[in-house]
């Protein structure tokens, strides 16, 4: 993946009538900080954004919201929010050809730091689609996490996502200044 190849793919996507162009894993320098990889995209996606906008398309980016690189500022700010199961941390691992990363717990204060990054990317790059992928089945169940309650939280991330993803997205929208219409969310059975 690089700038020239991506620009050509945007042309092909537009010719096929695609409305949202999603750049998959690899657009970032490291997980957690989610900054554009300038070696692959020297202009920080400016030409990509321009071409997508020119075609009336929308930009999407790949993310795994539950990881941060060991050298990332995100990890440094959230050392106490590392994902653990039964008091044990998972081993660091490479995420899509980047450096070693560790699991981060979305049911900790990390969620807000991560949400702020998504909001910034929405403003900077006009990203309108976030592809969450490569999320493991099990989340964190450490009792030091502020939202952990053994009677209602068995530690399965998939259960958290199914039950609380909409709340997470609502919180992001509210942080962006969205208007809250509780009656709408009740009607569509989100809450």
Tally of individual domains: 1
Compute the CA-based radius of gyration. 18 Å
Q: What is the H-and-E element order?
A: HEHEEHEEEEHEHH
Characterize the biggest β-sheet: 3 strands, parallel
- Say how many strands there are: 8
DSSP strand content: 15-25%
Please give the oligomerization state of what you see.
Answer: single chain
Stretches where pLDDT is under 50 for at least 5 consecutive residues are: 150-159, 179-191
C-alpha geometry: elongated
Secondary-structure class:
alpha/beta
Return the average pLDDT rounded to an integer. Answer: 79
What is the percent of helical residues?
A: 25-40%
Distance between the first and last residues' Cα: 39 Å
Please characterize this protein's 3D structure:
The protein has 191 residues and is of the alpha/beta class. It has one domain (3-187). 36% of the residues lie in helices and 15% in strands. The protein has 6 helices and 8 strands; from the N terminus they run αβαββαββββαβαα. The chain has helices spanning 3-15, 46-54, 73-77, 110-125, 157-175, 182-187, and strands at residues 20-23, 58-63, 67-69, 84-85, 88-89, 93-94, 100-103, 127-132. The strands form 3 sheets. A 3-stranded parallel sheet has the order 1-2-8. It has a 3-stranded antiparallel sheet with strand order 3-7-6, with no helix packed on it. It has a two-stranded antiparallel sheet with strand order 4-5. β4 and β5 (88-89) form a beta hairpin. α1 (3-15) packs parallel to α2 (46-54) and α4 (110-125) crosses α5.
